Amino acid sequence: MLRDITLGQYYITESKIHSLDPRVKLAGTMLYVISLFLTDGLLGYLVGAIFLGIIIKISKVPFKYMVRGLKAIIFILIITAACNVLFYQGTTTIFRAGFVKVTVEGLEVAAAMSIRLVMLILGTSIMTLTTSPNDLTDGLEKSLGFLEKMKVPVHEIALMMSIALRFIPILVEETNKIMKAQTSRGADFTSGNLIQRVKNYIPIIVPLFISAFHRASDLAMAMESRCYRTGRQRTKLYPLKYEKTDYKGYIVIIIYFIIMVGMKITIEGLGVGGFFTM
Amino acid sequence: MPFIKVENLVHKFFERNNEGEIIDEKNALDGVDFQIEAGQFIAILGRNGSGKSTLARHLNCLLFPHEGSIWIDGNEVKEEDDINIWNNRKNIGMVFQNPDNQIIGTTVEEDTAFGPENLEFSTEKIRDRVDNALKMTGMYKKMNVSPNSLSGGQKQRVAIAGTLAMHPKCIVLDEATAMLDPDGRKELISTVHRLNKEEGITIILITHFMNEAVDADRIFVMDNGMVTMMGTPKEVFSRSDEIKNLGLEMPVMMNVAIRLKNDGYEIPVDVFTIEKLADVYEQLYRKHLNGE
Amino acid sequence: MIEFVDVNYVYGNDKAVDNVSFKIEKGKFTGIIGHTGSGKSTLIQMMNGLLKPESGTILYDGKDIFEEGYDLRSLKFKVGLVFQYPEYQLFESTVLRDVAYGPINKGLAKEDAVKEAKAAMEIVGINEDKYEKSPFELSGGEKKRVAIAGILAMKPEVLVLDEPAAGLDPETRINLFEMLKRLCTSENITVVVVSHSMEDMAEYAEHIIVMDDGKLIKSGTAREVFSNAEDLENIGLAAPEITYLMCELSKRGIPVDKTIIKTEEAIKCLETLL
């Protein structure tokens, strides 16, 4: 169900991770993602997973809650894995049927990809789960502030993102409601060929767009009436300021990154590659 | 000088064809005149499409007059005078109909801070304003909660807090109770009455619910882009035939009183509460028993 | 017509509907009252099979609608469900086409669907000059009526509406309820309305179902339900103002009928005593 998407949702609680400066979390997430792509050995994934596990533990976000977010991408996961298993051009064949060939290498790649994807999603969602969208946009705004000089409206983009995030649950609910309403008028979303099916969705898409436009214009008016002006500096209730823990955060993430890079170099130096061979 | 003065205000809506040429125009506001003194509680009634919302938007400089003029706090509203416009928006807070479409922040406190942040206040001042505004609307405890988890009435109170944090002199509620359930409506109405009495904030309440209007100092009734009736609740609702013609309905108790009076019974008609009607009816009944 | 037997519905961790049983009688105007979150909306979404109860049975015309082989899709045409703010589900390029959407889904030929659509619009009072307009050009009240026509055009036997008067001005609201009453009496359609307004329900509904926290608190004639103000107050609801007036007068020793719930009856009663 759509409501199960925890990606991009903020989980309200108090923890060390929650109170970190969003810039630290952004940098950390970036380095974490890079480290995942550097790694292709079991040990690397293990270290990455342990690191992630510790962060999740500290963040106090229930693991169950995070896993719910994975449900939404399980479909993508299965498809990617299946494609890799079936079509990877490996040499050690296990099973063959027509042009489909399952190889050891294919299985390895599929497993590696799946693990990487899951860790990627968990890793990035820990950032969105522990950072309120406003903090997140503040962080992005500050980190990307240099683009402002190149006439990129960083602040406006950041605000847009934060508003978009706020409206996701509202629009999801609205979609549900419109779907039910049209079903009550005898709409059928399951039968017919592809074109027919796309057409069947018009009664949902049109009202959804119209309502989204209405909401947008209402919101613009509400913002204006509260003295919002584009292109103006705004002050902040919570201005971003680095504290001691933030520097500690940077140190931790850098140490992690150095370990991952170090492992990559030494393992390659030893010439031991491959997933299962590790 | 009254706090708000509106003189011969005209606002036109233009219908355009696909080339953008004007093919038809309609006066959404057609010569509106009124004055509002600071600290008053005004209710504006009128059927859908009578021009109430258009009027409200003028007060907040979201729309500008095509003809006529508006003075707010002694200054005339001019489209080209930015400073004046921002001042007016700060002084006159707006609460709109749809609770979901006016909350910008992702937590209650972030949303309340939106206005003061736009006014470029210092962090300490914003904190102070936000805390006070949330206390005044009874939303202080919900400070860190996501607006999506609030009830409709609570969301509207957050919207009020958002305007309060800018220290407005007046709050305009544009059908702000229309999408609420009875509990939410009660919460909101009692909040604005308290702000009016304790903080002296001028309230302009646009509504379809007659029982929300009976406690106002004055009622304006709009129809066809004009203010067609103006007066105290007693004055306005005693003209019951006109009220019905304007697409409104009578408050229940006063309706009963007027019907009795019209049928020839000696009964005062300015009764809005059950108690009061029971009192006057009891008198009438006792008199009747005593054979008078 | 519609019968719920021990129906339960779980939503997340909450029991949205908790062991509810009632009957809705053919040709009657039934009101469902209760707080936001009391389970009213869930209840009506089960009536046309949109939601399936966790346990319990829902019977339509004596048949279990969730029994294997029951044609749930055609039930949706028999039990027309009008959601809150139905104006937000309009999507077609013209009013006429929008109203004809339901009948076409039902399987009618285009001409027949248009005929039904026109008939439905006549009932709700949408004039011919509006047929070819875009539904988005209409006023709020008109949009709402067009949306209701979209359901009526499917020729439902039961019409279920969730808060149909939300956001309407008094005149439009009264006209809408008068129209529903007319549908009930002259078109013989069973009408079920979910509402927050005790005054409207006292005025128009014959039968009232009271919900609180997923449970059915009471089901009876409007007079039975509303003249028991205390029961309603216990769950944070209230009787109509006029009933409170009658109670107050009776407390003061004036022999009025305490069970009166409609203004007209109250005035008559008050005048006969003078």
Provide tags for this entry.
heterotrimer; B: 292 residues; alpha/beta; Rossmann fold; six-stranded mixed β-sheet; four-stranded antiparallel β-sheet; 10 strands; 23% strand; globular; C: 274 residues; 11 helices
CATH fourth-tier homologous superfamily of chain C? P-loop containing nucleotide triphosphate hydrolases
**How would you describe the oligomerization state of the chains in this entry?**
heterotrimer
Which word captures the global form of chain C?
Answer: globular
CATH fold descriptor of chain C: Rossmann fold
Q: Per CATH, which architecture of chain C?
A: 3-Layer(aba) Sandwich
**Main beta sheet strand tally, sense and closure of chain A:** 2 strands, antiparallel
The gyration radius over C-alpha positions of chain C equals: 20 Å
Which regions of chain A are unreliable across 5 or more consecutive residues at pLDDT < 50? 272-278
Number of strands of chain C: 10
SSE order of chain A, as H and E? HHHHHEEHHHHHH
Through-space gap between termini of chain C: 45 Å
- Overall pLDDT confidence of chain C: 93
- Percent in helix of chain C: 40-55%
Number-wise, the strands of chain A total 2
Coarse morphology of chain A: flat
CATH class of chain C: Alpha Beta
Query: How are the strands of the largest sheet of chain C arranged?
Result: 6-7-8-3-9-10
β-sheet strand percentage of chain C: 15-25%
Structural write-up:
The complex is a heterotrimer of chains A (278), B (292) and C (274). Chain A contains eleven helices and two strands; from the N terminus they run αααααββαααααα. With 278 residues, chain A is mainly α. A two-stranded antiparallel sheet of chain A has the order 1-2. In chain A, a hairpin with a 2-residue loop joins strand 1 (93-97) and strand 2 (100-103). Chain A is flat. Mean pLDDT of chain A is 83; it is low at 272-278. Chain B has 292 residues and is of the alpha/beta class. Chain B folds into two domains: 4-250, P-loop containing nucleotide triphosphate hydrolases (Rossmann fold); 251-292, no CATH class. In chain B, strand 4 (67-72) and strand 5 form a beta hairpin. In chain B, helix 3 (108-118) packs parallel to helix 5. Chain B starts with a strand and ends with a helix. The model of chain B has no long low-confidence stretch (mean pLDDT 93). Chain C has a single domain, classed as P-loop containing nucleotide triphosphate hydrolases (Rossmann fold). In chain C, the strands form two sheets. Chain C has a six-stranded mixed sheet, with helices on both faces. Chain C has a four-stranded antiparallel sheet with strand order 2-1-4-5, with helices on one face. In chain C, strand 9 and strand 10 (215-221) form a beta hairpin. Chain C is globular. Chain A binds chain B through residues 10, 12, 132-134, 162-163, 165-166, 169-170, 214-215, 218-219, 221-229, 232-239, and chain B through 57, 60, 62, 86, 89-90, 93-94, 96, 98, 100-107, 109-110, 113-123, 126-127, 130, 144-148, 159, 162-163, 166.
